[in-house]
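Team,

Forwarding the record for the chain on the shared tracking sheet. I've put the sequence and predicted structure together so nobody has to dig through attachments.
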Amino acid sequence: MRNPYDEQQTQILARITNNVVKLNDTLLELNQKIEEINEMNSDLVAFSNIWNHYQRNANLYLASTNSLEPAKARR
């Protein structure tokens, strides 16, 4: 005699398997997008570091040449 729940269990397992495959594909795509974002952020970090060094060096140069003036109030 055939188990009446076999077919139902097989269908449920097939749905679970299908959903896991879809989830895996979605997670792979998400990881790829996160890698792209991290790559772009690393470029921004490098630019920020360069800019901070430039600003620090410019301030040191202006201070050493006594070229720094207090900001004047604009009218």
